[in-house]
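Fold this sequence, please.
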Amino acid sequence: MSQTKRLTRKELRGPDEFQTLTTQAIEWAQGHGRTVWITVGAAAAIAIAIAVVLGITQSREARAAKEFYGASELYKREQWSEALASFSSIADSLGSTTYGRLSRLYAARAARRAGEAPRAVELYRSYLAAPAESVAVEQLARLDLGIALQKTGDTAAARAELERALELEGPARPLAIIRLAALAEASGDKPKAIELYRRYLEDEPSGADAEVARAGLIRLGETPPANPAPNLPQLQVQ
């Protein structure tokens, strides 16, 4: 036989206390209607503003991505002037988006390949004025900037940018070394050129520019190190 649980006086008071608090809240709201609606309205306005901003941001990002793809196709086809105009347009109109910022870097690369070195320098410096997406991207941008500066005849600035690229940890370090070596050789700094060519061969004995480094040393009257022996597969006795 089940026993009926007797409610305590505290439990019996519970609903009354809840009802009292609810009643007090309603009465307060009725007496402060304007305050309540202003608060609710402000919260709603903030929520709407956030939704609008997110919607605009997403819309701009999608537009930038779409236009970046179109400009990239021009770049792939080596239509440098057209790619420069397209990337520049994206950077100017959608510069705050991810692809808008990256467009400034690609516009600089297109300008350099189009033979517009001063314009390329301007765009590279504009891109590097803010933090790059990664150290590796910054290294590539500074390497390209050094090449563009060299084409404008500003050897000192070119060397400074190449040295900054070399200081960064990234995939373009070997290329920065070979570019600096060539620049040192062209400017008559024979000891520095020899040092850099040898450094390249020490770091990248089978690298893409290993023969360039060896040829550089020969031009400067130095004997380059021997070509590394190829890695032959080891025969296994069955």
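The chain has two domains: 39-130, 133-222. The first helix runs from residue 9 to 31.
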